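Quick bug: NAD(P)/FAD-dependent oxidoreductase output formatted oddly.
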Amino acid sequence: MTHSQPAARDRVAIVGGGLAGSLLALALAQRGVGVDVYERRPDPRDGRAEGGRSINLGLSKRGIQALTEVGLIDEVMPLTVTMSGRVIHAPDGSTRFQPYGKDGGEVLHSIDRNELNRLLLDHAQRHPQVRLHFEHRLNRIDKATRELEFEHGGARVIARPAWVVGADGAFSRTRPQMQRGERADYHQEYLEWGYKELSLSPKPDGGSRIELEALHVWPRVHGFFVSHPNRDGSHTLTLFLPHQGPDSFDSTRTPEQIRALFDKYFPDLIPLLPNLVEDWASHPTGSLITTRTAPWSADDWIVLVGDACHAVYPFYGQGMNSAFEDCSALMAALHAHPRDRRAAFIAYEAARRPHTDTLAELSKANFVELKQKVQSFWFLARKRIDVTLNRLLPRTWLPLYTMIAHTTMPYGDALARSRRQEKIVLGAVSATALAAFGAGAWLLRAL
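Here's what came back:
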């Protein structure tokens, strides 16, 4: 059976009702645009949201800016827990705090992905210009007739929107349909490591068993944990581990193997996780993927945002923030080209794609940093130099992490500036070393 929706030539279809899709729906509606959001999953507000596969989110400047633009930041912030820095847990059980920036203003905000999604969907649904359609799975896109075909409850649903946004994630169905028959590039890369979420419960009185207002990291070369705090005093622990090989997810299945892994790498966590074996068994193992693609649009009818066009590894904490920044950039491009949507799509991609490609590389690099560099003497010394110079020259010298997390500077510009600063530091160190060598040589001759 096929159902056709009422004529919707003046409405936009957004495929995907996740974070980016629901935010963009609200942003478009606030500009007077009618929006239909199609989501393959059930409504997460009904308590049937998928669990166990979402990494907790760190909201930073780019995401804050996008939420401010739609007037929601004052409602979102009470849902977050401030993280002022990292607490590094060494194998011997000792800890070390590493602040994110030079002052208390440079912080991240931990937030539950599902809670944020529910808030965005609530506000989108309240807007008279927005209609939400759950359990609608995209089957087909006909670019010639400009039709979308969805499956809903065993029936086919045909939609004919004015234009389409693909906001359906890293495994987007919109992207391959859009690029079919086009000269398109697509690169997909899986990390050999996966992830599993575990829960660290609060104390009986609701207090946190570890420092609440911080991101906790247990860095080990073979595997590592990252912990995000929750408002109820609990922490969401995410274990990153190889999929295969010794001490991997594949080789850690039985209660004995699970306990042996923690005895070897994370003994200080064992007393904090009394339900470790049960928690391990009840949470699935997730995969980590990065993608790049081009183009991001087709004619003036389809455009991609978020993970649908640039999924990245989570190690820089920028996935959501970057997706939200896409929404802001697309809205700005549409505003700049009010009578030429194709030009707006092209301008949007030109402004974003070089920088999201840079973010993919930064996210890969931060994977190495989190698992092994955060305890390195030279890494910590370099960080101290950056923070010191930032305090002395707050407008001139900005650490790379500060530029990525605490500004809206384009990612590529931030990396280029960081590399220029790195050359200055290396030059200064080299000059100091040469001066010291010269002074030593002069003293030897004088003696």
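Actually, after a second look the formatting is fine. The domain at 2-51+112-187+289-366 is CATH 3.50.50.60 (FAD/NAD(P)-binding domain). Closing.
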